[in-house]
Design a protein that fits this description.
Length: 131
């Protein structure tokens, strides 16, 4: 089964990215910037709000699982923590109406359009302040 772990990328302008078959908790700034573009009118405020909620939920999970994963010495323990974290992230995405694939598509659209990116960042900050 492929790993479904959201990748953190919040320096300045990047938002989260769900990744397949990559090590967990790596940073998307290590990846080339998405070049896909999307029309701002194709994504509703509802979609962007759901994206912001999913991103914030991921951050909370990351704060829980990343230290545990880094402290684990035994490969079997690391694998168990990884599986548990993957499952929790997948659950969080589904709770907000996403599959890993749909989250990736929305990420690419937001990352490829400055207007959408700014709007998403604003919604993420608002969601964080409520949490």
């Amino acid at each position: 089964m492929k790993n479904f772990f959201v990748r953190n990328a919040f320096p300045a302008a990047l938002i989260g990215l769900v990744s397949f078959s990559f090590p967990p908790f790596t940073h998307a700034q290590d990846l080339p910037k998405q070049s896909q573009s999307a029309e701002p009118t194709k994504l509703s405020d509802k979609d962007l709000r759901a994206f912001a909620k999913a991103y914030v939920a991921y951050q909370k999970l990351r704060q829980t699982y990343e230290p545990r994963l880094n402290r684990a010495q035994d490969p079997k323990e690391k694998e168990q923590i990884q599986r548990e974290g993957d499952f929790k992230v997948k659950e969080a995405l589904e709770k907000h109406g996403f599959t890993p694939q749909s989250y990736n598509r929305l990420f690419a659209a937001v990352n490829g359009n400055e207007q959408l990116r700014q709007k998403a960042l604003k919604l993420i900050n608002e969601e964080r302040s409520r949490s």
